Amino acid sequence: MWEFIFYSRGGQGAVTASKILARAVIRENRYAQAIPSYGQERKGAPVFTYARINDAEIETKSYVYKPNCVVCFDPELSVVGIDITKGKKDDCLLVVNSPEPVYTDDFKKVISCDASAITTELLGENTPPNIAMLGALAKATGCVSIDSLIIEVKDMIKGDKGEKNAEACRRAFEESK
Q1: Average pLDDT of the residues in 42-48
Q2: Alpha-carbon span 52 to 46, nearest angstrom
Q3: What is the residue-wise DSSP string for the chain?
């Protein structure tokens, strides 16, 4: 089973990303949960979101405490005291919104993608990097197909904006390293 913690800031779209991920996995006839953690979220404040993916029914109904994949939308969260390594499993992967790998000593494998640059280029300033981060996650884990993600992105985000977000997702999938 894949267990994810998404670390982000309010306004970066992690909650929406986890929902799109779950929908894409369910589209593939597997099981998924998207578990947002709501509280005093506001733009720029740390936000935690959780997700699970499995081939069999998922009986656990709680936050994820021991992830095997961390998805970090902002590697600067440590400045405000957020430890993205907390509780991770030994073989944990990191998918990070960064032009270069970071936290390489803390994770078994680090996949970096400049999701912010991709979304800014395709959709303009102040666009959340969430959809591009899903492309990077798909590349890093293989837990969901890029095609299923793109279908769900276009279903949830209509019109030209959906097309451009789908392109951001595919580009991130291709450019992640």
Answers
A1: 86
A2: 20
A3: -EEEEEEEEBTS-HHHHHHHHHHHHHHTT-EEEEEE--SS--BTSEEEEEEEEESS-----S--SS-SEEEES-GGGGGGT--TTTT--TT-EEEEESSS---TTTSSEEEEE-HHHHHHHHH-TT--SHHHHHHHHHHHH-SS-HHHHHHHHHHHS-HHHHHHHHHHHHHHHHH--
Looking at the predicted structure, is the pLDDT value of residue 39 above 80? no
Alpha-carbon Rg of the chain, whole angstroms? Answer: 15
pLDDT (tens digit per residue) in 84-117 = 999 999 999 999 999 999 999 999 999 999 999 9
Listed residue (5, 6, 138) closest to 66, CA to CA: 5
Q: What is the pLDDT of residues 125-142, one digit of tens each?
A: 999 999 999 999 999 999
